[in-house]
Design a protein that fits this description.
Number of helices: 0
Helix content: under 10%
Strand order of the largest sheet: 5-6-7-9-8
Number of strands: 9
Structural class: mainly beta
Strand content: 35-45%
Radius of gyration: 16 Å
Largest sheet: 5 strands, mixed, barrel
Shape: globular
Length: about 140
């Protein structure tokens, strides 16, 4: 089966995939996704910056209804899913949370992963980033 990531710009070139942000050379602000100018200052240039792979759930909610386009539901239709902010230390990242309801909580240690988002018309499985529980982070 053929797979691809939902948007190459979101990831670095490594294996396994890591999220690609940017850091301001003037004030050190880190952003995700990458952008060309700093949201905090106008003094520095933005340079590529690979983000940490683990962090903690900062806040979360249940996405119970299908979002508006360009959202594409998975095969079988929309199913409720968790989404939230993950604190990676340098930056908060909004992400899908691949965490069962019984386990999800603010402060939960999580680790970057990829999950199926949908299938293209040609059958290619399109992957997106998400965060799953990080059992090693509990120590």
């Amino acid at each position: 089966m053929t797979t691809r990531v939902i948007d190459e710009v979101l990831f670095d070139d490594g294996d396994p995939p890591r999220l690609a942000g940017a850091r301001c050379s003037g004030c050190g602000t880190v952003v995700f996704p990458r952008q060309d100018s700093c949201p905090k200052c106008s003094d520095g240039a933005m340079s590529p910056h690979v983000l940490a792979v683990s962090g903690h759930v900062w806040s979360w909610t249940l996405q119970a209804f299908a979002p508006k386009p360009p959202y594409r539901p998975p095969s079988g239709g929309h199913r409720p899913y968790h989404v939230g902010y993950v604190d990676l230390g340098e930056v908060l990242v909004e992400a899908l949370l691949a965490v069962p309801r019984a386990e999800i909580r603010i402060g939960l240690p999580v680790r970057l992963t990829t999950v199926p988002a949908y299938r293209d018309e040609d059958g290619t499985e399109v992957l997106t980033f998400a965060f799953r529980p990080d059992l090693d982070g509990e120590r």
